[in-house]
Amino acid sequence: MDCNDIRCPIHGSLKTRGNSFEGTVVSDRNQRTVIVIRDYIAPLRKYERQLRKRSSIPAHNPPCISAKRGDTVTVEECRRISKTKAFVVTSIIKKGVEQ
User: Fold this and answer.
1) What is the pTM of this model?
2) Which domain holds residue 70?
3) How far is CA 20 from CA 29, 46, 74, in A?
4) What is the average per-residue pLDDT within 60-68?
5) From 90's CA, which of 19, 46, 51, 81 has a CA 20 to 30 Å away?
6) Which pLDDT value is given to residue 98?
């Protein structure tokens, strides 16, 4: 498959840097954009406990990767692509069941 996307980290000229993490795709309705949910634990110092938190990150979804809803993906930081997107999907770890 030919990938003509210049914002593809594999076939294009987009360089990644900084943070990389795993998350689950919860929305793939926008063109070439997915919303990835990342669960993490944050310390709560006052009570010496931990909080479970969740953040949703819009990420660029190149056509050669084409992540769908329910997939577990690796997301890496890159330069700002648009007003909200500063991450790009680099690989699919596990295919999910589409709901």
Assistant:
1) 0.88
2) 16-94
3) 23, 29, 7
4) 93
5) 51
6) 65
> Which CA distances in Å does 28 have to 21, 61, 77, 88?
18, 9, 19, 13
Please tell me the distance from the alpha carbon of residue 74 to that of residue 93, in angstroms, as a whole number: 7
Give the CATH number of the domain where residue 72 resides.
Answer: 2.40.50.1000
Torsion of CA 59, 61, 66, 69, to 10 degrees: 20
Q: How many structural domains are present in the chain? A: 1
What gap in Å lies between CA 74 and CA 22, rounded to an integer?
A: 5
| Predicted confidence (pLDDT) per residue in 17-54, tens digit | 999 999 999 999 999 999 999 999 999 999 999 999 99
CA dihedral for 63, 68, 73, 75, sign (positive or negative): positive
Q: How far apart, in whole angstroms, are the C-alpha atoms of residue 64 and residue 54?
A: 28
End-to-end CA distance of the chain: 27
